[in-house]
Design a protein that fits this description.
The chain is mainly α and 275 residues long. It is built from 15 helices and no strands. Helix 3 runs antiparallel to helix 4 (76-88), helix 4 runs parallel beside helix 6 and helix 11 (200-209) runs antiparallel to helix 12 (215-228). 41% of the residues are buried.
Length: 275
């Protein structure tokens, strides 16, 4: 029929594919599992094809009501599209990501917030602050009959740190979350506050979390210290009871993001010791 797209049939989801195949998968709308993998692939491979961002933006807008019988998780395609758009660094996607930030789906809000942080979207500061403004009793409170919080606080807070608007009002919104009863939220808050204020006390909070009883918390603190590049954490990072691979990632962050003491030679030596 006229108008049909010709070419080899779509391969099974999950198999290695090409950029052209990923774009064809994302363009079709009959099979969301194919779109889901395609969106992930295009972000992972940092596709620069001129059709990539428009198709991902279209997929992000393709949100649908929850369907318990669907084979793909609710809004899974839109979430992967948001993640990919953050990785691709195209500021033209900010308006669609801001719209997704207002979606009822907390998982999509989380993905959109992280993408907006990666893009350094100044336009996102006000709406993110508005979502966090209710503090521990609002945004930071658990949902009814769910372990999730009312808002994806970690992602929202980390986005503010990444965007980097060090306004007292922004700092004031984040600071209460440094006292949250969940250590992962405290870690996210300390990370953002260290980025925005450079105050040593927030780096010390992250170092304390490196000694937390839960491995998941120690891992998060490692990644947060690496993301901030806080070089005084060199020795605590090296001594953390966690996988050497994660400690190497954190130390690489100190090399790439940090400045000051300890110097580069000491950092590279610590990395060599872990190899």
């Amino acid at each position: 029929m006229a108008g049909e797209e010709h070419g080899p049939p779509l391969t099974e989801a999950g198999e290695p594919i090409s950029e052209a195949e990923a774009l064809r998968r994302l363009r079709q709308t009959d099979d969301q599992s194919l779109q889901y993998y395609a969106a992930w692939w295009l972000g992972r491979m940092r596709s620069r094809h001129p059709d990539t961002v428009p198709l991902l933006r279209s997929a992000l807008r393709q949100r649908q009501p929850r369907d318990p019988g669907a084979g793909v998780e609710h809004n899974a395609v839109a979430r992967n599209a948001a993640r990919a758009l953050g990785k691709l660094g195209d500021g033209g996607a900010v308006s669609d990501l801001l719209a997704a930030l207002e979606d009822d789906d907390d998982g999509l809000r989380e993905a959109a917030a992280r993408a907006l942080g990666e893009l350094g979207a100044l336009e996102a500061v006000a709406p993110i602050c508005a979502r966090l403004a209710s503090g521990l009793a609002g945004a930071g409170a658990p949902m009814t009959n769910s372990p999730k919080l009312q808002e994806p606080c970690e992602a929202l807070i980390e986005a503010l740190g990444a965007i980097g608007v060090a306004d007292p009002a922004v700092v004031g919104v984040i600071e209460p979350f440094s006292g949250h009863d969940r250590p992962l939220v405290r870690s996210a808050a300390a990370r953002a506050l260290l980025q925005l204020t450079a105050e040593v006390r927030w780096g010390e909070v992250l170092v304390e979390l490196l000694e937390h009883a839960q491995l998941q918390v120690r891992r998060a603190a490692l990644m947060d210290l690496g993301a901030v590049g806080w070089r005084p954490a060199l020795e605590p990072i090296s001594a953390t009871l966690a996988e050497n691979s994660l400690k190497l990632i954190a130390l690489r962050g100190l090399v790439e993001q940090g400045s000051g003491e300890p110097g580069l030679e000491a950092l590279l030596g610590a990395m060599d010791d872990l190899l």
